[in-house]
Amino acid sequence: MSAPISIGAFKSGVIKCALHAAVFDAETGAVRGQPQMHAPPAGQLPPEMMQMMAQMGQIMAQIRCEPLRPFPVAVENGQIMVHV
Known about the structure:
This protein is an alpha+beta fold and 84 residues long. The protein has one domain (5-82). Helices cover 17% and strands 24% of the residues. The protein has one helix and six strands; from the N terminus they run E-E-E-E-H-E-E. The protein has a four-stranded antiparallel beta sheet with strand order 1-2-3-4, with no helix packed on it. It is elongated and about 55 Å long.
């Protein structure tokens, strides 16, 4: 299971995956937090949905993220250059 990291959120030097909420260091690519699943408080969803969320939580607990591969960047003449 994967998602483009580009649709994740960037804040304070970390990137948070939009798919499973894992957190990565934006500079080094190191994993700062494994996948998480956030469920609404009990009683806000039908029992069937709560059961499905519990099963998804078990699946999410098995996912382990690998560090991202960072690329060197530089600003040249006002343009961001990514060296790939």
